[in-house]
Structures are given as structure tokens and as C-alpha cells.
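Appendix B, record 7
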Amino acid sequence: MDRVPDGSVAAWMTRIADDARRRGLPELVPLVESLGRAVTSLREADWNDNARGDTRPDLGDKERPR
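C-alpha cells (predicted):
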């Protein structure tokens, strides 16, 4: 598969869905769309959020990393 010029997840997923349709596999389209939403959510997630809500992680006696 050629690289998508703009490199966006949406453009990539559109190409994959179109390819599935061309191959006569329309049942794959909802799966591709779900994958696209999942990838987008993961890319947009703030992985730096602390689940406990603390503003600073518990480092014990260790110095805070720089």
C-alpha cells in the first residue's frame, strides 16, 4: 500500500476501507472505522495524566527527574 500523502489516520483509514470495498469485503469497513476511532483516541489521549489526580507523582525519597 502506498503511503498516504497527508499521513492522517482518517486518510489512511479511508484508503483501507476503499480497498476493502474494491476487494469485495464490505464487512471489513465497520471494523476499519472502529480501528480508526481507536487509533485517533489513543493518539489524542493525555498520557501524562495522573490517575490519582496528584499534580506530582509520588517519588518517595527520590529526586524529581529532570
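Remarks on this record: The helical segments are 9-22, 29-44. The chain has a mean pLDDT of 78.
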